[in-house]
């Protein structure tokens, strides 16, 4: 099905052009016209793939998380669950240039005000996927011990907030919060989580 | 000096009108003209106080932190340092309507892309003031024990990220992260911080 593959490729091309517009000029500059120009396509070609600016932004936002999910799926197996979960959590932090760009786009799209229902639904979905990632980390780390549902959800809320806060600070104040400090913060947090719940370490 | 007082009042009036524009229509809608209309003033009156849109946004952003600082200064004295620091930290979370609006403005201004040097300097200053607040909390909680400078800064990075992450989630996903859960996350974190450093509790 070469036609379908072309369509998917074109869609990603347009979405990453939208990322570049967001990174260079802010989310307010994204329109079918500016993204078409950035992608080197006609307005008609872009409209053929995305009927509206909102659809384009929604796809661009989901693509950030799709790429992170693909990287997480490709992570090599580590010796212990704790090491594997450290890898998973740090994959959600912008510790290299590629992920810095993606995180900037993620933060810009989240902070963009607007009552548009499609974009709100996408924001909810994307937030939920990261939240589910945090839930996986907490579940796998506390698998061997008894944890109430309330305690579990509380740990998920805390881990997700810590991750998103670190990601934002790495983008906003790279001179103040280093990649090493952010990584330490997450690794320490996961170690202490296992200690608090009395999880035996190998 | 009634003239000076009038000027200060007018400045806050204009800045809070800018907040309302940000909350209702997004930061992209802020201009001297839209803010003047929202404040019920002439464009000339606004220009008399703020020479540019950037100056207006800078002041509006500083005002968010000024108000939080004023509330923190007015906090009643608590029985223990830990309780006082819990109050200080939770004052930085959007747990009521007034602070929700302020936090939305804070996040919108931070996420707004732009290379404007005045606004960048303001963002750095505002971030630094919150970071200093977190430094105060860590210092006062670990006052009686030995902590290396590196450990201290690491705790500040972690507390600040957790606070900003919780604040963002309270604004973005209020249906998923409750005020009670956010408060618990911070209180638990501060308690565990004192436990980790072996601080005796009264």
UniProtKB/TrEMBL annotation, chains A, B:
Gene3D superfamilies: Tetracycline Repressor, domain 2 (1.10.357.10). InterPro entries: BetI_C (IPR039538), Homeodomain-like_sf (IPR009057), HTH-type_TetR-like_transc_reg (IPR050109), HTH_TetR (IPR001647), Tet_transcr_reg_TetR-rel_C_sf (IPR036271). GO terms for molecular function: DNA-binding transcription factor activity; transcription cis-regulatory region binding. Residues 8-68 form the HTH tetR-type domain. SUPFAM superfamilies: Homeodomain-like, Tetracyclin repressor-like, C-terminal domain. Pfam families: TetR_C_6, TetR_N. Residues 31-50 bind DNA. The keyword Mitochondrion does not apply. Keywords: DNA-binding, Repressor, Transcription, Transcription regulation. The keyword Repressor applies. It comes from Brevibacterium marinum. The lineage of its organism: Bacteria, Bacillati, Actinomycetota, Actinomycetes, Micrococcales. This is AcrR family transcriptional regulator.
